[in-house]
Every structure is written in structure tokens, then in C-alpha cells.
């Protein structure tokens, strides 16, 4: 079929203690896998759409037939979001960004701390009500903003380029953090792969 579940780039337990092994197994092997299967089922009768890249597909949802548009939006968005999510985490992550990305964070937010404060405020249950994602978005001029998307929507659907993003669906944290979403959000910084974020930022600007 057109789309495939990418393997995790590290072991299921590699992000312990910040993200637990059982959560990673369920999240990758079950949740993400289901999005891929649902996307492929929706596209079964549309070979032309199967030949598009995932990014092409979800950034031009108006070209997707109406009878499968919602399914493609939800499951294609989540396939894209999760594929990125695994890559922007690492067992060697954490710390602070460097280089151009660090400079852009300073000029867009004042400081890395200020960006993290905004990130937490926007990721709180009262802000993203229900399920969604919080993203660091790069504009064409290199400036950065923190934005949220509801449900499985990707910033790519609005032509925006994500640099990092955190999954705020309960399936991503509930086994370990239960109702304390913001404890998960603050622990998550310990696994952010800033090298990958810096690579993505460089690509976004070029
Ligand atoms: Mn998820």
C-alpha cells in the first residue's frame, strides 16, 4: 500500500523515564499504525492519490474527493504528525537549541525560557481543549511562533512549516502522567532532539 509505518529511530524504552516504554509501544505500534491503515483504506480506490507524497496530500486537501476528505485529513494529518514526532525526540535530547535556531528563538520570543513558558501556556488543557498538538512554526522570513492545531491537523495543511511539535492527545501521556498534562509537557523538553530541530529550521529557511 501507499503509506507505511516508519520504524521508531530508537528503542521503545529509550526515552525513559520521561516517556515510558508501554506508552511508546502503544503509541507507535497501535495508534500510529491505525492512522496509517485508515489512510491506506481511504485511498484504496484512488490510485492517483496513493502516488502523492504525504506532504502533497495533506497540504492540498481540496483536491481530495469529498467522500474521503475528512478521513484523509484526520489520518493523513496524524501519520505526518507522528512521523515527525518520533524524529524530533531522542534519548540524547534535551538541553537547549544552538546556532541559528537559538538566535531565532531569542529574537522571536526574547529567550528560550520565554518560549517554553508560552509553549506550556498554550499546551494547557484549558488552551488545547480535548486533543491536539502544539508546534514551533517557522515563517518564511525565519521568525518563529508557537501555535496549536486541533485534533490531528498538521500545520502543513495551512502551508506552515513545523520545527518541533508535541502530541497532546491523552494516549501520549496518560499511562504515566494521568491528568497532569503539564508535567508531561515539562518532562518532554528532556527528550527534544535539538539537532533535528536545527536541521529542520535550516531547511525551512532555504
Ligand atoms: Mn499520538
Comma- or semicolon-separated keywords:
single chain; 206 residues; mainly alpha; Helix Hairpins; minor pseudopilin epsh fold; 3-stranded antiparallel beta sheet; 9 helices; 49% helix; binds manganese (II) ion
Mean pLDDT: 96
Strands of the biggest beta sheet: in what spatial order? 2-1-3
The rounded distance between the terminal residues' Cα atoms is: 32 Å
The ligands found in this model are:
manganese (II) ion
Fourth-level CATH superfamily of the largest domain: Iron/manganese superoxide dismutase, C-terminal domain
What does this structure look like?
- The structure is a single chain.
- This protein is mainly alpha-helical and 206 residues long.
- Helices cover 49% and strands 10% of the residues.
- It has 2 domains: 67 residues, Fe,Mn superoxide dismutase (SOD) domain (Helix Hairpins), CATH 1.10.287; 107 residues, Iron/manganese superoxide dismutase, C-terminal domain (minor pseudopilin epsh fold), CATH 3.55.40.20.
- A 3-stranded antiparallel beta sheet has the order 2-1-3, sandwiched between helices.
- Strand 1 and strand 2 form a beta hairpin.
- The longest helix has 22 residues.
- It is globular and about 50 Å long.
- The two termini are 32 Å apart.
- The site of manganese (II) ion has 7 residues, from helix 1.
Amino acid at each position: 500500500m501507499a503509506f507505511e509505518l516508519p520504524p521508531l529511530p530508537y528503542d521503545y524504552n529509550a526515552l525513559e523515564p520521561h516517556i515510558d516504554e508501554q506508552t511508546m509501544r502503544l503509541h507507535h505500534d497501535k495508534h500510529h499504525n491505525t492512522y496509517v491503515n485508515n489512510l491506506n483504506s481511504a485511498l484504496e480506490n484512488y490510485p492517483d492519490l496513493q502516488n502523492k507524497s504525504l506532504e502533497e496530500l495533506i497540504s492540498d486537501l481540496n483536491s481530495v474527493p469529498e467522500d474521503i476528505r475528512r478521513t484523509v485529513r484526520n489520518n493523513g494529518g496524524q501519520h505526518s504528525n507522528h512521523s515527525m514526532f518520533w524524529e524530533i525526540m531522542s534519548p540524547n535530547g534535551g538541553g537547549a537549541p544552538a546556532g541559528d535556531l537559538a538566535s531565532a528563538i531569542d529574537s522571536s520570543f526574547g529567550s528560550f525560557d520565554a518560549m517554553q513558558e508560552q509553549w506550556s501556556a498554550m499546551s494547557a488543557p484549558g488552551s488545547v481543549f480535548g486533543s491536539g498538538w502544539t508546534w514551533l512554526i517557522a515563517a518564511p522570513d525565519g521568525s518563529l511562533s508557537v501555535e496549536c492545531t486541533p485534533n490531528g491537523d498538521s500545520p502543513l495543511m495551512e502551508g506552515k512549516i513545523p520545527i518541533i511539535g508535541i502530541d497532546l492527545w491523552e494516549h501520549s501521556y496518560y499511562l504515566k502522567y494521568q491528568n497532569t498534562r503539564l508535567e508531561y509537557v515539562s518532562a518532554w523538553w528532556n527528550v527534544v532532539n535539538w539537532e533535528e530541530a536545527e536541521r529542520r529550521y535550516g531547511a525551512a529557511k532555504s
